Amino acid sequence: MSTKDMMPNFDLFQPSDIGNATDLLDQYGADAWPLAGGQDSLDWFKDRIKRPVAVIDLAGIPGMTGINVTANGVEIGALTTLTEIAQSTLLRDNYGVLAEAASRVASPQIRNIGTIGGNICQDVRCWYYRSGVDCYRAGGDTCYADTPEGLNREHCLFEADRCVAVTPSDTAPALLALDATMVIQNSDGIREVAAEDFFIGPDVDIERVTVLEPGDILTSIRIPSTWVWCKLLF
Ligand SMILES: Cc1cc2nc3c(=O)[nH]c(=O)nc-3n(C[C@H](O)[C@H](O)[C@H](O)COP(=O)(O)OP(=O)(O)OC[C@H]3O[C@@H](n4cnc5c(N)ncnc54)[C@H](O)[C@@H]3O)c2cc1C
Ligand code: SF4
Fold first, then answer.
1. Residue nearest atom 40 of ligand 1, based on CA coordinates
2. pLDDT (tens digit per residue) in 84-100
3. How far apart are CA 201 and CA 52, in angstroms?
4. pLDDT in tens, 48-87
5. Is residue 6, in this structure, part of any structural domain at all?
6. 40 CA closest ligand 1 atom index
7. Helix, strand or coil for residue 34?
């Protein structure tokens, strides 16, 4: 299936506070799509593989950008761009592995718009699934990648279960290494999830790559000062 470049219609909402955003997510449930930089989302829409009814643009929600020092490390807003993270002196000096990982994502243009939240929440980059085939992850009864001829270089070695796709996020391994914590908000309140529990494989849920459920918004990422010396060693 080729890229069509014509998005199906959807209602675009631009909430100005997080309460309004979680209300909208509750209202539309599985038909809602949170939007950050759109670098992953717009491909899905243009290819017409994902057809949300309501797109909830998070960009106008205050307090979700920036890199701030806390009593126990740093807190990074989910809408902070990958360029800001890659170029942050604070992160480069103290959490070099994350700044370096962010600098390796895609291209400068994508890093200028793409956010850390979108990077870690993005869906699998399995080309079969992305082209709209009826594989296990899409509710079908086969996996096209898990064959001797399959294009599966982006897939997992461990904990595969029918599907062999996992998160493609370049920043995810750095956040695991740094013992980061994800801060998630929905209409019931705020919860924190350790990075090692945030990402899930197909053995846990074949339809998700993170623990996020409909209605959840990742608001920030907290990194403790435990590993301030951590630099990329390759
Ligand atoms: C050509 C190309 C190359 C790429 N190369 C790489 C690469 O090398 N490495 C890599 O890691 N990635 C890559 N990506 C994937 C991705 O586009 C970028 O990593 C980018 O960071 C996505 O961020 P975004 O803000 O644009 O996400 P969006 O497209 O806005 O969102 C992505 C997903 O996350 C969800 N989401 C976003 N923010 C939140 C939030 N705060 N709370 C809840 N859900 C949220 C959205 O609903 C959507 O499902 C590439 C993409 C393209 C198009
Ligand atoms: S690896 Fe997963 S997403 Fe890809 S074709 Fe197989 S079941 Fe579908």
1. 218
2. 999 999 999 999 999 99
3. 24
4. 999 999 999 999 999 999 999 999 999 999 999 999 999 9
5. no
6. 29
7. strand
